[in-house]
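My convention is simple: the sequence line spells out the residues, with the fold written below as integer tokens. I include a record here:
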Amino acid sequence: MTAPLKTVRRRFAEHVCAVADTDWPELIAAFSAVPRERFVGPGPWTTFGAGLQREVTPDSDPRRLYNNVLIALDEAKGLNNGQPSFWAALFDRLRPRPGERTIHVGAGGGYYTAILAGLVGRMGRVIAMEYEPELAAAAAKALADRPNVEVLAGDAHALVEGPADVIVASCGFDDLPVAWVGALADGGRLMLPLTAASQLPGIGAGAVLLVTRRGPAFEAAFVSGTMIYHDKAGRSETAGARLAQAFGFSPGAAWSPPKIASLRLGGMPDETCWLAGESWWLSTAPNP
């Protein structure tokens, strides 16, 4: 007998959170409650599993989607729904809390926006931003029954406004949006992938940066390696080359995210500087 979708979603949620090494009950509940099929278009669906092995589901049964795989949103542009265990691990580090104001950049079809909305609850708010107009329209439709979510279409560099408790990006940047750091409330967290160009067109390789505001100071750490599609605005060859040099990628060599401890705004970078941009730098030392 085929298991009810509610049961399938719960097993899926428990599995992806176990793979992400988290037993956070609220996160499991959020993954359990969101119907993934609502956010990925009509089936059959193209999925990418281990080693980016491409498969097409044999039918449109939504149970096919409850595996720890990527689901193509626009295969020609390399846009996908994201691997659930990857985002479960990141959300576990980010820990959105009930009542928080959250901004989701690169919302795609809105699936992880819906999970964020579940985590911040009815008293919280999620502003979802998506550059691709077709995806933004699809996300707005899929999220229309969630009164604590607003979807905006366009360039997040111009759209993000504070104060924000959480800002999380689902696309890769080669420079730090300093204005977003300034938009954080005290205790606020900014999580975004910093990525240089890879061998895959439109896809960057790098690490996910987590910045936490502590009054006037900012803690910083890389929490995961990543390969993710580029932010659609604001990238430059100069910033990408600077970031690639800092990461020190070497073909065929093992790699892990660098160890950093703080983000500094302004001032002259010192010998602890790992990477510097315009008016910001990442330090390997904690804040003084």
Q: What stands out?
A: The chain has a mean pLDDT of 94. The CA atoms of residues 165 and 188 lie 4 Å apart. Helices lie at 5-19, 25-33, 84-94, 111-120, 133-142, 156-159, 178-182, 237-247.
